[in-house]
Design a protein that fits this description.
Blueprint lengths: L10 E3 L19 E5 L7 H17 L3 E5 L11 H18 L7 E4 L5 H10 L4 H5 L2 H7 L7 H15 L5 E3 L5 H18 L7 E5 L33 H9 L17 H14 L3 H7 L5 H26 L3 H30 L4 H16 L1
Parallel strand pairs: 2-3, 3-4, 5-6
Antiparallel strand pairs: 1-6
Helix pairs in contact: 2-11, 3-6, 3-12, 6-7, 8-11, 9-11, 12-13
Amino acid sequence: MFTLLKSIVTYQSVECKFVSIRRYSSVITSKRIFSGIQPTGDIHLGNYLGAIQRWVQLQEIEENVLWSIVDMHSITLPHNPTQLYENVLKMTATLLACGINPKKSILFQQSAVPMHAQLCWILGCITTLARLAHLPQFKEKSKTLKNVPLGLYIYPVLQAADILIYRATHVPVGQDQVQHIQLAQELAILFNKKFGDLFPVPHSLNNGEACLRIKSLRDPQKKMSKSSKDSKSRIDILDEPNILLEKIKKAVTDCTSEVTYEPEKRPGVSNLIAIHSMLTGKMHSQICLEAQGLDTGKYKLVLADLIIEKLSPIRVEFSKLIKEPAYLQQILKDGTEKATEIATDCWQQVRKKVGFVGDAQCTNEKNVQNILRNI
């Protein structure tokens, strides 16, 4: 999971620390974009502005894009199986309501393509415990657990497999996922060195200000998060208008009534201005100029009206789509077939390179796959 095509989006590749990265940049010449989202909880405004809005923009300007509902990542911690599949369908409806178009991009369910897990095992065999222990998300999430699941430790390897099985060249991610993309870069290089060129080295795509995290409405020193116990700290994109209004009115600001953008001195008001900017494409200075004569209380009402205007169509469309589970399942089925075709081609080459099959067997298996797809 949003189209702000009028906004100027500048994509920058996160620099890779590896000198050898250019050596492998020619493995695939065509650009392919991949990203995934977990089907856990409702999408909040930070998810929308930081990820899904970019996905919609990218599908309009790029020809080769894949978006995955990464349900395998959702089971690294205890979960309800029935609720998980319901969440997959809910996420599908949400993404479609936000503007993801299955005719312009491939939308699919991760667990329905077995090559993700298969490649994860191969990549797990060429990485180390020490390397994974350096990743910050594991340290953060494991602090509160007495018994840490292995999946929580190795899920960055699965994340790398998600990317590499499609030989993706670019991955739209937030700043908190940059280190995981660096791991995917490392693993692509290690595999290519050990077994022969196959994977392009994927690059992160950032789009200027949207990479900055939207802050909590109740504590602007923290990012907006669906894990927060305070529901008023975040704006869920499916919130009813009266709830949206109440959340914005309750947003923490300060004692100064003037509307100014000063993130260090006035993080609360600046967070609201940042949201306003990302929703409209306006500069912070322009927003402050337009808000002259308004105190923060009245400015909140202006912003609330804007958010309601932007999110209401999404909520209405979602309400229609969620009542059509068969349609949602068909969208995922169609997307999974397309994703599987791409992944199968890559997996056959992986098997050949690591020594699982010979040339003739690899060709025969590929022919069988083609026959099965045409039945």
